[in-house]
């Protein structure tokens, strides 16, 4: 054995010792089964952690699982990152929708204060139409609710008074 081979063998032994330490930590911290098998070409003996029997048993147990179990337990980093990206994009869409609604409310208030409707561009006009439609839907729902109360024989003035006093029974706190 020459000097280069001995140096390489020492480095491999140190790296394998470090790998086994990390595998043991992973096994304990994450409560997973871990087995390490390493061999060098030309060597007759394989390195195994914790032992060759247990490493083989772990591998055989994994291979015995059917494909659906493997797919449920395992997914690639790409899949994980894609799920994160999808969730972030959905969050961004919701934030953009809220920002657009707030912008249209502000624009509506500006129109009420005297801004000319002729100053609006196409996007603002569409946004305001969407806002008006949402408000119209809310008003129709309230109208239906009020009509139901009227049919039940309740006094509409009493309903309005009740709605304006919401939260007052707790000292103004909801």
From TrEMBL:
Pfam families xref list: SRF-TF
Main localization (coarse): nucleus
Region (Disordered): 149-174
Signal peptide limits: none
Transcription regulation in keyword set: yes
Protein localization: Nucleus
Keyword Transmembrane part of the UniProt annotation: no
InterPro entries assigned to the protein according to its UniProt record, in alphabetical order: TF_MADSbox, TF_MADSbox_sf
Residue span(s) of domain MADS-box: 1-40
Keywords, sorted A to Z: DNA-binding, Nucleus, Transcription, Transcription regulation
Official protein name in the record: MADS-box transcription factor 47-like
Gene name linked to the record: LOC107021926
């Amino acid at each position: 054995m020459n000097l280069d081979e001995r140096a390489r063998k020492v480095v491999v032994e140190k790296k394998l010792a470090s790998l086994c330490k990390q595998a043991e930590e992973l096994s304990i911290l994450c409560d997973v089964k871990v087995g390490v098998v390493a061999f060098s070409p030309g060597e007759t003996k394989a390195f195994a952690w914790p032992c060759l029997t247990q490493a083989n048993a772990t591998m055989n147990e994994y291979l015995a699982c059917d494909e659906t179990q493997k797919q449920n337990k395992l997914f690639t980093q790409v899949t994980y990152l894609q799920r994160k990206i999808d969730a972030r994009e959905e969050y961004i869409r919701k934030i953009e929708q809220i920002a657009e609604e707030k912008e249209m409310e502000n624009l509506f208030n500006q129109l009420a204060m005297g801004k000319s409707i002729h100053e609006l561009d196409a996007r603002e006009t569409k946004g305001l139409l969407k806002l008006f439609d949402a408000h119209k839907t809310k008003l129709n729902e309230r109208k239906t609710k009020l009509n139901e109360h009227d049919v039940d024989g309740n006094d509409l003035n009493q309903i309005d008074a009740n709605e304006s006093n919401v939260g007052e029974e707790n000292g103004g706190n909801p």
